[in-house]
UniProtKB/TrEMBL annotation:
Listed name of the protein: Deoxyguanosinetriphosphate triphosphohydrolase-like protein
Species assigned in the record: Oceaniradius stylonematis
NCBIfam families with a match to the protein in the record: dGTP_triPase, PRK01286.1-1, PRK01286.1-3
Record keywords, A-Z: Hydrolase
GO terms for MF: triphosphoric monoester hydrolase activity
SMART domains per record: HDc
Domain of life: Bacteria
HAMAP family: dGTPase_type2
Keyword set includes Hydrolase: yes
Length: 406
């Protein structure tokens, strides 16, 4: 990778000048003594891994519901795969791999049971109360809803990890106009938090968070191909003309004719992943050559996402996404089960808002003193934290008939 940043690659040289330096962290909202053995970002990563929200990811849906088979990805296995790719990108780019890993590990904390299905239902039900957004919910989890520490609610993560969580997909406010990016208001939970802790949502996140974001795209594109083949909803014949997948499959079939389906799928998907990872590293190196950042502040103010696919790869990746959307995410079997899951979340929300005491424990607590919006947020928090299995068990407790989501 030629140019000023030509030494970027798979080496493990010193940290780059544009990396986020843990020694210069902006710290935590609640001040704590520094660890003598871990950097601030390593502590963030460890707190994330040891949280209740992280364990719950084991029983939250990615695409296929967890009871459909032990080998399908869940939110937890997806998260681990994202973290691995994020670390690989960070090391190649000579940025802080602990921060990249922390952002990757926390990025899905706000997801509801039943994948995006649950999020869509809650967003519709919360339309009059600020809506529901899984990224904003993740911020609520790590700043309010996790209750493990004596000195504070949440995990008290560093400014950099919170910034990466909120902005890993880009700024929320257009710095030129001061208006929300994409025309959609900043989610209520994020706006409320920003009133007391400025995460500078008009600037780009550091390169570590950008690496985590693109790692997410790479991970789900490749593992959804694998899971779709495993489930029988996709076939190798369908993939022959699909960008990235078809090219990788042709190479595998040429090198290993007659390979069994399991190995064939793995050989194909790992080549798809490698092609995307290597493209991101090369494109990001080119962008760094062009921008010549001298500090992390230069990354924040670059005016563009630097860790990204090349134009050619972005076009191919978009084609792969379109294929997966049409043939996997919108497959009639997936949509049938999705409709059942929608009913479960809808039923739970309506029942708990009418009878909040049914939530039990601290969730029921002072519910009678809450106004309509406060109660809706309380119920959304409760449901969003559920695993698939707990949501179904709660539905069975409260209703005479519960779908088995098969």
């Amino acid at each position: 990778m030629a140019g000023r940043f030509g030494d970027i690659g798979f080496g493990f040289g010193g940290r780059a000048v544009y990396a986020t330096d843990p020694a210069k962290s902006r710290g935590r909202l609640i001040a704590e003594p520094e660890s003598p053995t871990r950097t601030p970002f390593q502590r963030d990563r460890d707190r994330i891994i040891h949280s209740t929200a992280f364990r719950r990811l084991k029983h939250k849906t990615q695409v296929f519901f967890s009871h459909e088979g032990d080998h399908y990805r869940t939110r937890l296995t997806h998260t681990i795969e994202v973290a691995q790719i994020a670390r690989a990108l960070a090391r190649a780019l000579r940025i802080d791999d602990d921060l990249a890993e922390a952002v990757a590990l926390v990025h899905d904390f706000g997801h509801t049971p039943f994948g995006h299905t649950g999020e869509d239902v809650l967003d519709a039900l919360m339309a009059g109360h600020g809506g529901f957004d899984h990224n904003a919910q993740a911020l609520r989890v790590v700043t309010r809803l996790e209750r493990r520490y004596a000195g504070f609610d949440g995990l008290n993560l560093t400014w950099e990890t919170l910034e990466g969580l909120v902005k890993h997909n880009g700024p929320l406010i257009d710095p030129a106009t001061g208006t929300p990016v994409g025309g959609k208001a900043v989610p209520r939970a994020i706006a409320d938090y920003l009133a007391g802790h400025d995460l500078e949502v008009q600037r780009h996140a550091g390169l570590e968070a950008q690496a985590a974001a693109i790692a997410d795209d790479i991970a789900y594109n490749t593992h959804d191909l694998d899971d779709g083949l495993r489930a029988g909803l996709l076939t190798f014949d369908m993939l022959r003309g699909v960008p990235l997948a078809g090219e990788a499959l042709a190479i595998v079939d040429d090198h290993y004719p007659g390979l069994d389906d399991g190995r064939r799928a793995h050989e194909m998907t790992r080549r798809v992943m490698t092609a995307m990872v290597e493209d991101v590293i090369a494109e990001t190196a080119s962008n760094l050559d062009r921008k010549i950042p001298q500090s992390v502040a230069d990354i924040h103010d670059a005016g563009e996402t630097l860790a990204r696919f090349s134009a050619a790869m972005a076009e191919r990746e978009a084609g792969l996404k379109r294929f997966l959307f049409e043939h996997l995410y919108r497959h009639e079997e997936v949509m049938r089960v999705r409709a059942q899951a929608e009913a479960v979340v809808h039923d739970l929300f309506r029942r708990f808002t009418r009878s909040p005491s049914l939530m039990g424990g601290e969730w029921a607590g002072d519910a009678t003193a809450l106004d309509e919006t406060q109660l809706a947020i309380r119920v959304a928090d409760y449901i969003a934290g559920m695993t698939d299995t707990f949501a179904l068990s709660e539905h069975r407790r409260l209703f005479d008939r519960t779908p088995d989501l098969r």
